[in-house]
Amino acid sequence: MTVPNLITMLRFLLVPAVVYALLENATGWALAGFVVAGLSDGVDGFIARRWPSQRSELGAWLDPLADKLLLVSVFVVLGLMREIPLWLVVAAVSRDILIMGAVMVADMMGRPVAMRPLFVSKANTAAQILLATVVLAELAFATTLGSLRLVLVVAVGLLTAISAAAYLVAWLRHMSGHGEGNDPRG
Predict the structure, then answer these.
(1) 18 and 36 share one domain
(2) What is the CA radius of gyration of the chain?
(3) How many domains does the chain have?
(4) Minimal CA–CA distance to 76: which of 87, 94, 59, 89?
(5) 3-state SS string over the chain?
(6) Going by C-beta distance under 8 Å and a sequence separation of 6 or more, which residues neighbour residue 123?
(7) By residue range, what is the domain housing residue 89?
(8) Are residue 89 and residue 50 in the same domain, yes or no?
(9) 27 shares a domain with 112
(10) Pick from 81, 111, 136: which residue ends a domain?
């Protein structure tokens, strides 16, 4: 087990802790756990890039899974708390489910898809993280950051829709054979 993998396992353990803290209205702890998870993601990525012997195929699968599990869990709980709109939670989670479903269908049909995020997907994830952080900070410090939350909700909504459409187009091109090799971005 590599050091980055151990750090990633810590992130998996932080998911129920952050969710529990939110459900118990311990928003300061929830924010702290979310920030620690984010920092640990940066640390394990740095270690894996700096020391190639610390890279592993397991880590390549676990790292994004841990990130997605934390972000989706926080989004769902904040949605249930009515801190972010439920439509946004449904859109974000549905997009992720559709992408996973498309990858599985492609795999079952003998046309595996290379798992590389599109730029718009990275922007979407960054906006989701920023939105979750802002909402958690507002809750933890009993304050508001003006219209920043609304701007981020709109940005995440737009990026989610654009990202879903981009993946759909890339997947359709890939499945129809019009893409280049196994790259879903064609």
Answers:
(1) yes
(2) 18
(3) 2
(4) 89
(5) CCHHHHHHHHHHHHHHHHHHHHHCCCHHHHHHHHHHHHHHHHHHHHHHHHCHHHCCHHHHHHHHHHHHHHHHHHHHHHHHCCCCCHHHHHHHHHHHHHHHHHHHHHHHCCCCCCCCCCHHHHHHHHHHHHHHHHHHHHHHCCCCCCCHHHHHHHHHHHHHHHHHHHHHHHHHHHHHCCCCCCCCCC
(6) 159, 163
(7) 83-186
(8) no
(9) no
(10) 81
104 with 12, same domain? no
Q: What is the pLDDT of residues 16-35, one digit of tens each?
A: 999 999 999 999 999 999 99
pTM: 0.88
Q: Are residues 69 and 125 in the same domain?
A: no
Residues 6+ apart with CB under 8 A from 20: none
Q: How far apart are CA 49 and CA 47, in angstroms?
A: 5
For position 177, what pLDDT does the model report?
A: 84
Residue 112 shares a structural domain with residue 51: no
